[in-house]
Amino acid sequence: MVTRLLIIAFIALAIAASCSCSAEEMRGAWMGAWWPGYFTAEQVDASIAAAKKAGINALFIQVRKNADAYYDSKIEPRGSGIAAGFDALAYTIEKAHAQGIAVHAWVNAFRVGSAKPSTDPKNVVNLHPDWINKIPDGKIMGTEGVYLDPGVPAARDYIAKIILDIATRYNVDGIQWDYIRYPDSKFGYSDAALAHYYADTGATTKPDPTDPKWAQWKRDQVTALVRDVYKQVHAIKPKIVMSASTITWGSCPADYTRTEAYWRVCQDWKAWMSAGILDANLPMAYKDERTAQGAQSFRGWLAGFAKWNGGMPTYVGIDVDNNDDAGVLAQIDAVRKAGLEGYVLYKFNQSQRRNTLVDAMAGSVKQTPEPIKAPEPIKAPEPVKAPDSTKPRLAPSLVVK
């Protein structure tokens, strides 16, 4: 135990001594809607105090979990667990901004149900069963639950409506996509999506799951939502940071097309970065620092992020629950040494685990988040294509507004 504490102290001192800790560094934390942390005013106050102590300068709070709302939505039913009448997003923005901490609205996109989908008649699963994603035999349940089909334009329009509602009515600093992908390579066979595919391509028969043209068409459907919402949000509020938590399953390959993000779930985050339709990437590099394989995989992905960033910032997702304090601090140090722009901790909900982590982090990062100069308004991009220049772009502002 004493040895472990000495290791933590050594890493914390090394981080503090070796890192410039630029005001532009993202020091973020995710809070999910499955656990306490922002369901009441008291929980929000405690979470902001913990973030302040740990040097966190941005909170990513989940405002849409299973096609439900943890804010004052006029579109979707209220989420479970939250106090009656409490607008978690509005209160968190008010209190966090007062402490110089940014707030990003974390939104599950296509995933809309768990193993037991909602029975609420106002839930989109029940309003539009024709939008639900399927495999060829008609089954809808994946390993992570029920998804809407990205190949259904009406489903994408519905999700875009939710994002625009949040962007219009709340003073959020950013909106972060999650589950912005297919569940697996065998999905995509809703009748509505197939009809759209036939109309788009001229095909007349159901494609095979391994057909590369079908896979590319599916990637294009996910990209269409990312691109279209980016343009619409920035037309309203150019300074909102649009980001996505993205897949990093397995070890990092040499070729992006061999990542599971690309071939398995049709999430082409490399193209999104290159085209400038994401302001930042939040890859979920959840690797166990306590094993040689996990530590090596984490650093392999850091190299991939640097190679595939398209000149845009990368804020690396670090697993808190499956790492000890020394492991978290070591991975923060690795992110900085890799020259990446910051990190986001998963998860930062109310727990004893958070308490110990905050104590470990308190001496290793700045205590006061510093706002930086806001970027110029971002011009809405053309459809996805390679950029004309490889010159890096400025990181989006972390300044609270």
How does the major sheet shape up?
Answer: 8 strands, parallel
Our estimate of the beta-strand percent is 5-15%
Helix coverage percent: 25-40%
Shape: globular
Structural class: alpha/beta
CA gyration radius, whole angstroms? 21 Å
CATH fold-level assignment:
TIM Barrel
CATH superfamily: Glycosidases
Physical arrangement of strands within the biggest beta sheet: 8-7-6-3-2-1-10-9
Question: Assembly type of the shown chains?
Answer: single chain
Attribute tags:
alpha/beta; 12 helices; two-stranded antiparallel ribbon; disordered N terminus; 37% helix; TIM Barrel
Notes on the protein architecture:
With 401 residues, the protein is α/β, with parallel strands linked by helices. It has a single domain (21-361), classed as TIM Barrel (Alpha-Beta Barrel). Helix content is 37%, strand content 12%. It has twelve helices and ten strands. The protein has helices at residues 2-18, 41-54, 88-98, 124-127, 153-169, 191-201, 212-236, 260-263, 269-275, 292-307, 325-337, 352-361, and strands at residues 26-31, 58-64, 102-108, 111-113, 146-147, 174-178, 241-246, 280-283, 315-319, 342-346. The strands form two sheets. Strands 8-7-6-3-2-1-10-9 form an eight-stranded parallel sheet. Strands 4-5 form a two-stranded antiparallel sheet. Helix 1 (2-18) runs parallel beside helix 11, helix 5 (153-169) runs parallel beside helix 7 and helix 11 crosses helix 12 (352-361). The protein is globular and about 65 Å long. 49% of the residues are buried.
